[in-house]
Write a structure and sequence with these properties.
Layout (H helix, E strand, L loop, with lengths): L3 E9 L5 E9 L4 E6 L12 H12 L2 E6 L15 H11 L9 E6 L1 H6 L7 E7 L17 E7 L7 H8 L5 E6 L10 H13 L1
Length: 204
């Protein structure tokens, strides 16, 4: 991986709530990516270890990456909004990419994966999500969208078992499910595997 420039920035969500994000810019850029973190009420934030593993893979694949804190988390103002405001936070983060002509990847982990799967901006090429729960929202924009869905899940996930996830996403368009046999929902001993698998899925 070549040099990466990292800056912190702030921007407004749709209702004016100020959010904080890190922008990771590799020397060569072929696409943009926005990464969403786990549930704000259970300790999720943009520095989560699985989010970081995803960011490493995306930067390795020459994506400019924005990882941001949802409202009420980390350096972001406001408070948790139940899902719909967080969806607006994600769309505001998408608007921050420096070159909107490049294709877009939406990535996320757990709650962040669920949020990512509910939106489909015009530039979207692919979703790359880890351990979606698929219980927080009724409608998933990803299900019938032609963009590639690449999903990583632990075989022993406590919140959405891999077998259930396979059944739910089995009818989705252009979807690939990758299972890490030794992992549960938190991937403590499998972070390197998450990063390597994410990189492979980005290139598939």
């Amino acid at each position: 991986m070549g040099p990466v420039r990292v800056t912190t920035q702030r921007f407004a969500s749709g209702d004016g709530t100020i959010l904080e994000a890190d922008l990771l810019i590799p020397e060569t850029r072929v696409a943009n990516a926005v990464v969403c973190h786990p549930h704000p009420l259970y300790g999720g934030n943009r520095n989560d270890t699985v989010v970081t593993a995803l960011c490493h893979a995306l930067v390795e694949a020459h994506h400019e990456v924005i990882r941001f804190d949802f409202r009420g988390t980390g350096g972001s103002a406001g408070s948790y909004g139940g899902g719909s405001p967080e969806r607006e936070d994600l769309l505001a983060a998408v608007d921050q990419v420096s070159d909107p002509s490049l294709p877009l990847v939406l990535a996320g982990y757990s709650f962040g994966a669920d949020i990512a799967l509910t939106v489909a901006p015009d530039a979207l090429r692919q979703w790359l999500v880890v351990a979606p729960v698929l219980q927080a929202f009724d409608c998933f924009a990803a299900a019938s969208h032609e963009g590639a869905k690449r999903i990583i899940v632990g075989a022993h996930d406590q919140f959405q078992p891999a077998t259930n996830l396979a059944a739910i996403t089995g009818t989705w368009v252009n979807t690939q499910l990758a299972i890490i046999e030794s992992a549960d929902h938190f991937f403590q001993a499998s972070l390197e595997r998450v990063s390597k698998l994410a990189l492979n899925l980005l290139l598939s």
